[in-house]
Amino acid sequence: MNAFIASVTFDGLTIDYEVFFICKKFKAILKQKHFAKYVPYQLDFWKDKGIWKSYHPLTQQVINQFGSIIDNHLELKKKQNLGKSSTAVG
Fold first, then answer.
1. Is 28 within 8 Å of 13 (Cβ atoms)?
2. Rounded-to-integer distance, Cα 13 and Cα 29, Å
3. pTM, full prediction
4. Residue 80 — pLDDT band, cuts 50, 70, 90?
């Protein structure tokens, strides 16, 4: 899976992270380095029994923002892959 950008809100700031899938988890790396003193530079996320989790001390709202963005991205990729496979067969 390719990396993608996730824009989330931390304490009123909209922050961009680049998200990668690595070893059954998603890693988010801060794109705007000038915000590094205000927000975490690197984050990890995974889904456990349908609930998004993180090791980092984030609010559940921020974790849910990331989770929603990741879920939407995965759904989009799934639809794109289904479209490609049905085009190849048909």
1. no
2. 16
3. 0.83
4. confident
